[in-house]
Design a protein that fits this description.
Layout lengths: L3 H21 L11 H38 L19 H7 L2 H10 L7 H12 L2 H8 L5 H16 L3 H10 L3 H17 L12 H16 L1 H8 L13 H16 L5 H15 L4 H18 L12 H4 L8
Amino acid sequence: MISRRNIRVKVMQTIYSVESQIAESGGEVPTKPVDTVKILQKHFDQTRQLFIYLIHFLTEVARYAETDARNRASKHLPTKEDLNVNIKLAGNELLWKILDHPSYKQAVKDDKPEMLIDADLLKKIYQELVDSEKYQQYIAVQGRDKKDEKEILEYIWDTLLLPNETFTSYIEEYFSNWDDDADMVVVLMQNFMNKPSVYNFQELLSKEKWQFAKNLLQTTLEKKELALQYIKPKLKNWDPDRIASLDMILMRMGVCEFLFFETIPPKVTINEYIDLAKEYSTQQSGQFVNGILDNIHKDLVRDNQMNKVAFSPNSAQAQQSANKPS
């Protein structure tokens, strides 16, 4: 469910974090070994926590119909309208498929998204929903239609939450990974509402992709000097120390994919790191990374060195966090 592009981003961030700490300490390697795989796992945990929170907030908006009905009925002098609040949405069939999903229930228990709910924001968004023509059309229909049940939840997500700057600002405040994960999480949410039963929140990252993430991280770290042997001759008049740190990390990752990841076509590797350089580094980084990786690739092909051999990280590294993240 998590894309390889997102995996590359989190590997890049992990390497940048670890190597920045070493640089800040004057180049001294920490006396206590840094568990880089554990740091990487935390990045993926944050993605799951963000996804769970968004689903939870969406379901709370829908369930607020019951809360609204109770609050209005408990007034000192409730009106006829107060006593006849429509709570059809709270019984939405898709909503309860989500709420009864064992994997989702376990994720809510583990991550406790309710701790971050802003009650005032929740109430405000619910009121916007009630005032909308879409909602009035929904509650006017007797009975339940699968299409209508899905469309009203999609309306909340697509129209009331995603474009809402107050809501997204709140998300950014509590989830530093929102900018990195937003596009992917939007796709995950769309797919989830189509088929909620197929999701396993304890395995958002498949075993195969978790292995790819660990291998890319460990290979890039352990084969740093080898990668630089390919990169430095291509820098010509560039001073390696003056090149953006992220550019160097991305190029090292790209070279490692060339040499050690046999299932990834070189052109895919180049295109992925061009895009990441454009998004995460400087304005010129995309073109720069493209030129360096493309030249290295051509040399490898010319010299018949594109015979990729999978690299197994050393045993000490490989033992770290062997299990995939929950």
